[in-house]
Amino acid sequence: MHSEAMIRGTGLLECGRAYAFLMESTKVSRLSTLSGVTLTHRDQAMLHALTHCVKVFSIGQIHQAWWAGSQGLGDLSRRLRLLEKVGWVTRMCMACCGSRSTGSLLISWQPGEPEPGWGAILQKVHQGFDRTLRSVSGIVATPLAANHFGGQARYPRPSEWTHDLLVSSVYLSMQRNRPDDAMAWCGEGKLAQRWHSSELVLPDALIERALPPIVIEIVGQSYTPTKLRKMHEYCRIRGWRYELW
Fold first, then answer.
1. What pLDDT digit, counting tens, does each position of 183-229 carry?
2. Residue 67, helix vs strand vs coil
3. CA nearest 47: which of 181, 118, 141, 172?
4. 190, 234, 192: which is closest to 213 by C-alpha?
5. What gap in Å lies between CA 215 and CA 60, rounded to an integer?
6. Pairwise CA distance, residues 121 & 155, whole Å
7. DSSP letters along 99-157, please?
8. Does pTM surpass 0.85?
9. What is the distance between the alpha carbons of residues 50 and 40, in angstroms, rounded to a whole number?
């Protein structure tokens, strides 16, 4: 079997990807007529991310990622209400803690490097959290959207609302700054489907096309040195990299 690098040189890989994108776009275009609403490119990008990469986006995240510089929040809210009315998304209200910034990595580790100091990392995480609860409006995909886009619709658990929004923030940051890695992002839900139940670690995401693969983990307030060390050993044994955010 030819490697991706060999195929890339012939241009066949790019042609194959273009054909796959065309087929998927045609499929979505046909399906969108079932609801009586034509999905825009922004709609499709958001729904694909919600069914393949993350569980939920806040309204603010959607505005920043796909609507900034164009229509305002009022137009976005009307669009989301329409998408909800015809069955593509569900709006929800979440109680979340004020979270630390996810604009920079806590640590990036690769095989051969020493084990990080977990105490210092967790101290930095705890110092960055504001435990004050605030109300956040969010959007999740429906089973209809998951079926049409070939992904999943997962409703976040209340105990994980803050963490799930952090995961979405990291994904969107990667979409802006590392688009190739964002395209290769495989979310926790898809990993859970593919990996054996005996796996000791289920990360928030895996960048699959990287060599070696990169595990993405967003460190929460409840994390312990034992939990992080288990993930470290899992990656070390397999020769994988990981990033803690």
1. 999 999 889 888 776 567 899 999 988 789 999 999 988 899 999 99
2. helix
3. 141
4. 234
5. 26
6. 29
7. PPP-SS-SEEE-TTSPPP-HHHHHHHHHHT-EEEEEEEEEEEE-HHHHHHHTS---PPP
8. no
9. 15
